[in-house]
Amino acid sequence: MATESIGLIEALERNMAQVVLGKVDAIRMCLVALLSGEHVLLDDVPGVGKTLVAKALAKSVDGSFSRVQFTPDLLPSDIVGSSIYDANTGQFNFNAGPIFSNVVLADEINRTPPRTQSALLEAMSDGQASVDGTTHQLPQPFTVIATQNPFEFEGTYPLPESQLDRFLIRLSMGYPNREEERQVLTSHRDAEPVDLLKPVIDCQQILELQNEVRQVAVEASIYDYLLDIVEATRTCGEIHVGVSTRGALCLYRASQALAMINGRSFVVPDDVKSLTVPVLSHRVVPKGYLHGNQRAAIEQLIQQLVDDIRVPS
Fold this sequence. Notes:
Elements: H1 3-17, H2 24-36, E1 40-43, H3 50-60, E2 61-62, E3 65-69, H4 76-80, E4 81-86, E5 91-96, E6 103-107, H5 114-117, H6 119-126, E7 128-131, E8 134-137, E9 143-148, H7 161-164, E10 169-171, H8 178-187, E11 201-202, H9 203-213, H10 220-235, E12 239-241, H11 245-261, H12 269-280, E13 285-286, H13 295-307
Parallel strand pairs: 1-9, 1-10, 2-11, 3-6, 6-9
Antiparallel strand pairs: 4-5, 7-8, 12-13
């Protein structure tokens, strides 16, 4: 692995850590998604830094950034754009929506109806958007960072499994410890620190890193270990719907990205094991599934399944 690539990843991580204090794991998971060419769902209470992470990532990348505040009256055209008639030329011109950015913050994604939520599906899975029968390619790289509040259900529309499956990783920020929170207070004395961040990497360099991720070596025993985990979710008596083939591929790609972030050109079992909960827990449906918050129980179940599987040596 090139020293330059490792240096770029470390610079990106350090730059985000200047403003996202004490959240090393959250930063790393966002970088895993970015280097995998995938998307992140930040599922936590308001005010713990979900939007800050998205802004810090966008500010660190020399690319375009859009924020979409999802509301009950938001229309699909407000996201992907629409065709506008030009009386002077007699033609319809496409006016691109905010989805046509390198980093898109979908704030409170569960506050908009399913029709509008589904407008993101094609963009997130295929890197394109169809408007009035015409397909428009999205800029590359393209990453969606979505946020939602898991403890507020009134006036919300829970994401269906098909949409959750488009997110590589679901994670929580959590509260900072006392010293980290003190640093947050003092750093906001004069201005918003995130507004002062400068880009440390450009879009072309990210695309090159994404190509390098695909070259990270995966040994046969790692393939078997990963598939054993996926199979365990399908045969578990407490799970109604196990992890799909797409989920297995996501865990595979995320493991390659994490290995690269850790400075290795090969995947080790710990890469797979540390990613199983954030990558797989939102892809299963437990028996007796209700729309209430069962996240902690599901994550605990996934972790238990992984702990019971033999780790290759």
